[in-house]
Amino acid sequence: MKYRCLIYVLLSVLITACKDDYPIDDDHLLITDRAECYVSNFELLGADFQTVRTKAAVVDTVAQTINVSVMFGTDLKNLYPQFSLVTDATLEPKIQGKEDFSVLDQPREWTVVSGNRKVRKTYKVYLTIQQ
Fold it and tell me: How many CB atoms lie within 10 A of CB 53?
């Protein structure tokens, strides 16, 4: 019984000590020291969860733009964007499901936030329709 109490005390000390060493954000994701902040790849899926791209999206990390061409006839109001981000980065706003890309002259915007949550870069997604 004496050892069991000692084990509980040691476990509670270890758990408390770990909380301070590894801060988390509002989404319960680990905040790290990483300052890198970029999109490495972009995918766009249709309502059937199949790609609607005609070729690979062009991600420009300097201009912070993503250019993607989609197949003629694609339902632009029901697309599922998927971002591949650098390690520990997050995306704002979060993608909760389908997105509307039907207004072609206004690019959609998402912000990539670094692992240390100090660097923020807004990417604009430009969509064109294959002729």
Answer: 17
